[in-house]
Amino acid sequence: MSWGADRSIVGTTLSAALGLGAVVTFTAVRDTSILRPLIALAAPRSLPSDLVAVSLLPLVAVLAAVFLTRWWPWLLVAGAVLSLPTALVHLFPDLGAHPSLSIVALAGPPVVLLAVLAAAQDLLRRGARVAGLVVIGLTVGTQLFAASLAGASWLMLTPGGLVWHLVLTALSVAGALLAVVTRSARARAPEWPEPRPLTPRFAAAAILAVLLPMALQAVDVVKISEVLELPVESIGRHPDVVVAIGGLIVLVGGVIACAIAGSRAFFAAATSASVQVGAMAPLLLAVYSVAFQPVLSWLAAAVGVAAGCLVGATRWRVQFAVGGAVVSALVLFIVDLGTGGVPEKLIDRDAVIPGALLLALLCATVVAVIVTTGPRLAEDGVVVPVLGPLSSVLVLGGAEAMTAVGVRDQNAPSTRLEAVHRLGYSAGLLLLAAVLIAGIAVVEHLRSDPKQEAVSA
């Protein structure tokens, strides 16, 4: 391997990793849920009459990014620039008076994520397997790290946190510029593969996945009461029903989109989505448990993400991912049983060490599971649509449909921690991810040539 090829691989990896700083900044500053499906949420939930064109900009940007991945360095630049208002509003508060800037900023992180996934696909197809898998792991790992920086929703942004956001924004811009500068090195290296255009099947699936969240605009109390033939007042007393039905509609549509893309894409997207939806509630519990120990929080998340990337880049990635998902599920069952069905005790009793260990374990598991889907998708050249729009729409639909799972006292007020009472269902989704990974590995092994399998090992 020539020095030029080495330099192009290093430049690509470094630029993609630095570019993800914009994702960390956005998800840490905004009051967002953990593992928020940023790509699916680019579709507007409503269209204000005075801001219709602006509201559609994130959606258009995501659609364009899906089909322009061969120019991913410029997409990284565009995403970094679109993300700037998120950080700059804290330096120039007057910018917050312009709602159009907040809407435009929604386009930044999804475009960055799609550009980084495209870079990971190029690395894998180039033969830089470790670098490509690490970059895929970082696409979700950065969101987990951002959750540790944000901490609990009731904590105010500290001056130190503001410095974090400004530094990460600067790094994202630097990464985007580095991606453009290293384009010539990749162009001169004959080892870099030619980009593959999306086939009509994947193009249709990606477009459907990006547009599906707009269907949530049609779901409201009145329409649901008409369909279910129930009084509006009755539905109004159970607002979770509206959210769950909307999520179910998006989830079913997402499954159809994945089916259009084919079986390999379907199972890869389902694996990625199931581990993310399953980890949301326990991650919330873990992050809140260490909220008053910010250094320990981000350190635990960083260690977990690094461990997930490390094991995901090895030849035993499938075994580690399955084992991590199973162990995480068992830990959730133990936490639920040990707290008597009241997991908030970890927060109330300031159980910092258990919370940090749970955070590190979950971060490592989520990253390791998603990394296992990368190699096969890269062979088909479909990392971007599968781990981008298809996975994201399944996460959005699954997370909202999960609001109907579990029993809550009708007289009890809804709280931010309500989801942690469904740890049993979260554990079930993690076990589902383990089954999907193991099943896919078995099928691929049976389909492969034994001689070729021995050589690759």
Automatic annotation (TrEMBL):
Transmembrane regions: 51-68, 75-93, 99-120, 132-156, 162-181, 202-221, 241-260, 267-289, 295-313, 320-339, 351-371, 383-403, 423-443
Q: Does the keyword Membrane apply?
A: yes
Which key words tag this protein in UniProt? Membrane, Transmembrane, Transmembrane helix
* Protein name, as recorded: Integral membrane protein
Taxonomic path: Bacteria, Bacillati, Actinomycetota, Actinomycetes, Pseudonocardiales
